[in-house]
């Protein structure tokens, strides 16, 4: 893809807000996307990500702010003039048209000549590996195939932007993983700037170059999947990104010095203690990633004494659920470990000091730089 | 023995249906092959096709038949044109507005044919609301004659049978996913082309169902043409009424009724064929 001058971002969402009556669905959302990027809008249902996608597509009108594409304001431009391809969660194929007619629809709208449009239809269907399916009707295809037709249909118009609305949510678990790879590889081949909406953090992390985590109509953090995972900007992002989810607990400074979970004292590693001291707070929210916990011997420095409640065997790994006073903590350990403690027995868990996340106990913002 | 028991239980219902529903139809067909005894209300002996011959030969009836088909076809077309936007509004509307529109649509269906027709007289009369408004706006100086004209009858029929078009349309249109329309517009289809290429083809089953209902209802209508036509517009319904209630020639009235039944039966078969054709084309492609 040709390099675009840095001054003009490819897609620019500038202070977009949207309200339906009293409810604010989007609050001052600003995102810029460089050309060729695969961006994931990630968030729980109701966070406004689908509304934002509809606004970009022109299927919904924002109440404030602007959307620009290559510097051109799209505000007020109807969807059918935008040249933006949309793949809907339901695929939204035209049931009364064959696969070929579906893919050709956008080309007919552009009044392309017959030969050119036939070539583009074939090319688009080849791209999604549905070469021989042109004369089938949508009802004769599986869900995965229907989705590929929907993608081919959007790509055939050579869109300036490709929008994917929860593209994997209607597929079964096995197919989902392979389609994930297919879509990413397709993006790499075609190079069209892509914005995908998803509530599944694993999908967002594995497919996208950039992830924008959204909640309650705001973008909480935008960055590479690595940055989002390693340095979450808020408690919400820390808990939402990562699988299994991080344990978020309240940690308080003891009157006598040192730290405690409720009534339980924690003799943490000096490195971590120094980090906490530097923050100068009486109370913080601490985030511990299960995959960055180790099962250790009693008395190991920095280990948390907990009581095992249950464990899940995941094949290769085992997810332990333990209690530290009133708080719950999860740890992912090797599945082949023999001599695991039984539920009710004490376990000693050592968090990797580098991976410990610290958030403001009040507003949930990340504390150390 | 055991397998016939459920059928046995059905027998009373079947018998009742046969007596109150099928028997009159059978009698109607039988009577249409009779003639009236001279100077009597009783039917003469022997079966004959004289009534049918008279129907074909007498241009008054043939003209009424053709006029009725024309009126019904025009009514069907107009209800479709008016009904599509209304049905769309109901199908895509939400909450109170949708309920209110739907209720308004149902009113003419539940208050019978006479009341709306009388209302239409007030609206369409020489001193009625429509003419009054037109004069007030300076669009016309003398009253437009609606009552006793074909135009007035068609307006009445459209008003009376609009719900029969709107309800099946609402049914199909509300099952049409919004995403499909959105997909069409994101692919570059203007609103007009979304209608032509996506909404209308997908609404076809509803259009066919509504058209059949409105056509049959308009074809057999009696009260609306009688009241708004003021006896000047002879349709099949009014002619049959004259024959049965005024001339008291029941056999001939029966013949007219049988012709209507056959015509509607044919319309139904045709529409079913059309529907099947649509389905097959959708599958074969």
Structure description:
The complex is a heterodimer of chains A (369) and B (285). Chain A has helices spanning 49-57, 99-109, 114-127, 143-156, 173-190, 201-207, 225-230, 235-240, 270-279; strands at 11-20, 23-33, 38-42, 64-69, 72-73, 84-87, 161-165, 194-198, 210-215, 218-223, 247-253, 259-261, 264-266, 283-288, 293-295, 304-313, 317-324, 327-334, 346-351, 357-360. With 369 residues, chain A is of the alpha+beta class. Chain A has two domains: 11-237, P-loop containing nucleotide triphosphate hydrolases (Rossmann fold), CATH 3.40.50.300; 247-360, Beta Barrel (OB fold (Dihydrolipoamide Acetyltransferase, E2P)), CATH 2.40.50. In chain A, strands 6-7-8-3-9-10 form a six-stranded mixed β-sheet, with helices on both faces. In chain A, helix 2 runs parallel beside helix 4 and helix 3 crosses helix 4 (143-156). Mean pLDDT of chain A is 91; it is low at 1-5. Chain B has 285 residues and is mainly alpha-helical. The model of chain B has no long low-confidence stretch (mean pLDDT 88). Chain A: Keywords: ATP-binding, Cell membrane, Membrane, Nucleotide-binding, Translocase, Transport. Chain A: It comes from Kaistia hirudinis. Chain A: GO terms for molecular function: ATP binding; ATP hydrolysis activity; transmembrane transporter activity. Chain A: Residues 11-241 form the ABC transporter domain.
Question: Which regions of chain B contain 5 or more consecutive residues with pLDDT less than 50?
Answer: none
Cα Rg of chain A: 25 Å
Fraction of helical residues of chain B: over 70%
State Rg of chain B: 23 Å
* Structural class by secondary-structure content of chain B: mainly alpha
Q: Do you know the CATH topology of chain B? A: MetI-like fold
Helix content of chain A: 25-40%
Give the assembly state of these chains: heterodimer
- Can you name the CATH architecture of the largest domain in chain A? 3-Layer(aba) Sandwich
Q: Spans of chain A of 5+ residues with little confidence (pLDDT < 50)? A: 1-5
Shape of chain A: elongated
Number of beta strands of chain B: 0
**Gap from first CA to last CA of chain B:** 49 Å
Largest sheet of chain B: none
Return the CATH architecture of chain B.
Orthogonal Bundle
CATH homology superfamily of the largest domain in chain A: P-loop containing nucleotide triphosphate hydrolases
The number of helical segments of chain B is 12
The overall pLDDT of chain A, averaged over residues, is: 91
């Amino acid at each position: 893809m040709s390099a675009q001058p840095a001054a003009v971002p490819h897609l620019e969402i500038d202070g977009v807000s949207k309200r339906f009556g009293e409810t604010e669905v989007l609050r001052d959302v600003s995102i810029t996307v460089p050309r060729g990027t695969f961006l994931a809008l990630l968030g729980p249902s109701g966070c406004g990500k689908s509304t934002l996608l509809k606004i970009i597509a022109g299927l919904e009108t924002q109440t404030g702010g602007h959307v620009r594409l290559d510097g051109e304001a799209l505000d007020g431009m109807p969807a059918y003039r935008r040249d933006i391809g949309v793949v809907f969660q339901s695929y939204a194929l035209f049931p009364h048209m064959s696969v070929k007619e579906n893919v050709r629809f956008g080309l007919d709208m552009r009044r392309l000549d017959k030969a050119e449009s036939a070539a583009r239809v074939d090319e688009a269907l080849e791209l999604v590996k549905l070469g021989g399916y042109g004369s089938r009707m949508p009802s004769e295809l599986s869900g995965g195939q229907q989705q590929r037709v929907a993608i081919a249909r959007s790509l055939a118009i050579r869109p300036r932007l490709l929008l994917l609305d929860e593209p994997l949510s209607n597929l079964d678990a096995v197919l989902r993983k392979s389609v994930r790879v297919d879509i990413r590889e397709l993006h790499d081949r075609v190079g069209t700037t892509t914005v995908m909406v998803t509530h599944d953090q694993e999908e967002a992390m594995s497919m996208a170059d950039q992830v924008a985590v959204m909640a309650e109509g705001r973008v909480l953090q935008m960055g590479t999947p690595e940055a989002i995972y390693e340095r979450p900007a808020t408690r919400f992002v820390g808990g939402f990104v990562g699988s299994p989810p991080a344990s978020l607990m309240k940690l308080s400074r003891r009157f006598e010095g040192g730290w405690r979970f409720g009534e339980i004292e924690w003799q943490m590693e000096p490195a971590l203690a120094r980090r906490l001291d530097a923050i100068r707070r009486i109370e913080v929210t601490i985030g511990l990633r299960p995959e960055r916990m180790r099962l250790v011997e009693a008395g190991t420095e920095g280990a948390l004494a907990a009581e095992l409640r249950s464990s899940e065997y995941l094949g290769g790994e085992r997810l332990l659920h333990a209690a530290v006073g009133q708080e719950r903590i999860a740890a992912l350990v090797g599945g082949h470990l023999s001599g695991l403690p039984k539920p009710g027995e004490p376990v000693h868990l050592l968090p990797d000091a580098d991976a410990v996340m610290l958030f403001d106990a009040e507003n949930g913002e990340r504390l150390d730089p | 023995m055991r397998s016939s028991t459920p059928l046995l239980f059905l027998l009373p219902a079947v018998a009742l249906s046969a007596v109150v529903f099928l028997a009159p139809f059978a009698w109607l067909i039988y009577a249409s092959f009779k003639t009236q005894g001279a100077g009597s209300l009783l039917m003469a002996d022997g079966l004959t096709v004289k009534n049918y011959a008279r129907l074909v030969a007498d241009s008054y009836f043939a003209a009424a038949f053709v006029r009725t088909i024309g009126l019904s076809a025009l009514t069907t077309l107009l209800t479709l044109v008016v009904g599509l936007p209304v049905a769309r509004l109901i199908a895509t509307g939400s909450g109170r507005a949708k309920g209110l529109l739907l209720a308004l649509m149902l009113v003419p269906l539940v208050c019978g044919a006479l009341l709306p027709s009388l209302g239409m007289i007030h609206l369409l009369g020489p001193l009625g609301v429509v003419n009054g408004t037109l004069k007030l706006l300076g669009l016309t100086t003398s009253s437009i004659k609606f009552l006793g004209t074909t135009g007035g009858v068609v307006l009445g029929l459209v008003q009376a049978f609009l719900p029969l078009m709107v309800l099946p349309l609402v049914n199909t249109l509300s099952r049409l996913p919004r995403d499909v329309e959105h997909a069409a517009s994101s692919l570059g289809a203007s609103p007009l082309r979304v209608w032509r290429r996506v909404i209308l083809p997908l609404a076809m089953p509803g259009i066919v169902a509504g058209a059949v209902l409105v056509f049959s209802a308009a074809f057999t209508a009696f009260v609306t043409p009688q009241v708004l036509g003021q006896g000047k517009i002879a349709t099949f319904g009014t002619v049959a009424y004259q024959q049965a209630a005024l001339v008291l020639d029941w056999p001939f009235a029966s013949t007219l009724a049988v012709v209507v039944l056959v015509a509607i039966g044919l319309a139904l078969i045709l529409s079913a064929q059309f529907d099947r054709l649509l389905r097959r084309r959708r599958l074969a492609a």
